[in-house]
């Protein structure tokens, strides 16, 4: 059964309480804390704060519901209530931050992804960004400084920052590529600057550490930890820094054993066959390198395993399902929380081979096709994520 646009929006409005039928993107009313928030990055803040379900993703889902069956729409309405990070993937999209902050209640924490480095996504094409190599002054002045001033205007709201997915891991494993060589100094300078400027009392910071199938290889653990620790130290060892984020927009299982790729011929060179082992193993390397080593792990789309032909396949993996819900109960001391970082339903990259940002990974056998540009809404993929969710909706 298809719902008409207005019927479905009315449904969404009741089922998810908001957004309203007329303006699905309108943020909710919420009361921030009565006084300034001060987060202690020596503790696990996720024990105290719940990840906020932001208006932007709720709005995308409210629109998606209009063309769904009643059964699926009811499940989608539940997805809209699950805490998910908001991505500031362009200077323009900084406009998402203020309304999301304003609607975050005192007992919740807003998850924010900082993602706009010059020469972004240097080892792939799908997420190449707006800033060119060399535009570091623009990154600092028009992007990071703007984010900092908005956060400063909201001292009574708790914020978890995830700094620049894939950037430093690419410098560890893909530095042979000319594009990554060109991006390297801007990445190092930019990540350190972001950590320094955004070291604010109501913030807790994590930097991206790829996943077990990336920096988990024996040869990558030490150089990986050293690259990340260098950024932390270059930023002046910020007090609000807590550690790393893993599996961002990824598909790895949390504690499947034996792991998904443990029977491949090179598996002996990588003990981190699941994210739990990766967090612990890489965490030890980070400690040796001299940086805080707690982790948050993206479990948004890892509900189903055994879908990828190769571990490195990252684009719109066919048959994927929503995964473990955000929670601070990970059972592992170094893992602060399971979080949803990638908004499930937003594409990883276009499958249109004539597009400028076409990456051949999005044309692979295990990649869903057709798929729109990275970040664009992907209705069919969203519906599959719901159907294949584990735990089920
Ligand atoms: C895209 C971003 C998008 C993010 C979250 C990335 O792959 O490049 O534009 O905001 O995914 O969907």
UniProtKB/TrEMBL annotation:
Substrate binds at residues 87, 89, 211, 214, 314, 342, 346. Its EC number is 3.2.1.-. Keywords: Carbohydrate metabolism, Cellulose degradation, Glycosidase, Hydrolase, Polysaccharide degradation, Signal. SUPFAM superfamilies: Glycosyl hydrolases family 6, cellulases. One of its GO terms (biological process) is cellulose catabolic process. It is an enzyme of class 3 (hydrolase). It comes from the Eukaryota. It holds the Pfam family Glyco_hydro_6. GO terms for molecular function: hydrolase activity, hydrolyzing O-glycosyl compounds. The active site is at 121, 166 (proton donor), 348 (proton acceptor). Residues 1-17 form the signal peptide. Belongs to the glycosyl hydrolase family 6. This is Glucanase. It comes from Schizothecium vesticola.
């Amino acid at each position: 059964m298809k719902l008409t646009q207005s019927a479905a929006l009315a449904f969404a409005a009741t089922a998810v309480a908001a957004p309203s039928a007329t303006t699905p993107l309108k943020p909710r009313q919420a009361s921030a804390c009565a006084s300034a928030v001060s987060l202690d990055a020596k503790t696990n803040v996720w024990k105290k704060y719940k990840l906020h379900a932001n208006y932007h993703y709720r709005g995308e889902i409210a629109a998606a519901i209009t063309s769904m069956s009643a059964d699926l729409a009811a499940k989608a309405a539940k997805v809209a209530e699950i805490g998910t990070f908001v991505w500031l993937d362009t200077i323009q999209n900084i406009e998402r931050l203020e309304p999301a902050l304003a609607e975050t209640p005192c007992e919740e924490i807003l998850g924010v992804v900082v993602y706009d480095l010059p020469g972004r996504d240097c080892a792939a094409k799908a997420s190449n960004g707006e800033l060119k190599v060399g535009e570091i002054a623009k990154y600092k002045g028009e992007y990071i400084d703007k984010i900092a001033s908005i956060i400063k205007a909201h001292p009574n709201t708790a914020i978890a920052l995830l700094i620049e997915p894939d950037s430093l891991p690419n410098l560890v494993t893909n530095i042979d590529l000319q594009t990554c060589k060109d991006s390297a100094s801007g990445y190092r300078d930019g990540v350190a600057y972001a950590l320094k400027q955004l070291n604010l009392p109501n913030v807790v910071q994590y930097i991206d550490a790829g996943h077990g199938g990336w920096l988990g290889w024996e040869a990558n653990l030490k150089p990986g930890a050293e690259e990340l620790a260098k950024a932390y130290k270059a930023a002046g060892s910020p007090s609000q820094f807590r550690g790393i984020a893993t599996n961002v927009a990824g598909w790895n299982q949390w504690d499947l054993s034996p792991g998904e790729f443990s029977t491949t011929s090179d598996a002996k060179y990588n003990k981190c066959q699941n994210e739990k082992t990766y967090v612990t193993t890489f965490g030890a390397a980070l400690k040796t390198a001299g940086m805080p080593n707690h982790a948050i792990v993206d479990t948004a789309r890892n509900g189903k395993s055994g879908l990828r032909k190769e571990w490195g396949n990252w684009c719109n993996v066919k048959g994927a399902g929503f995964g473990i819900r955000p929670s601070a109960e990970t059972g592992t001391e170094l893992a602060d929380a399971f979080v949803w970082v990638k908004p499930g339903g937003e594409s990883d990259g276009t499958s249109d081979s004539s597009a400028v940002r076409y990456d051949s990974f999005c044309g692979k056998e295990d990649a869903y096709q057709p798929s729109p540009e990275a970040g664009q809404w992907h209705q069919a993929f969203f519906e599959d994520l719901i159907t294949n969710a584990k735990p089920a909706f």
